[in-house]
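Before relying on records like the one below, remember that each one covers exactly one chain. Contacts with other chains, cofactors or solvent are not represented anywhere in the record.
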Amino acid sequence: MAMSVTVRKKPKVWIEPGCIVCRACEQICPEVFEVTEETCIVRPDADASDADTVREAAQACPVEVIRVG
């Protein structure tokens, strides 16, 4: 009998131009998002394995610039 294995892929996350520096994404998912004075970035060492939290942060973005693929 073969065993079933579930593999969770880390989502690809990026930010398009237009961030208004509201900090919502950073408050929801600080391990992935870092807000600077001018914009938000995806941390280079980000662990985006919690896809639900990353998607929650994207949905909270008031200008809808966070993309999750």
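The radius of gyration is 14 Å.
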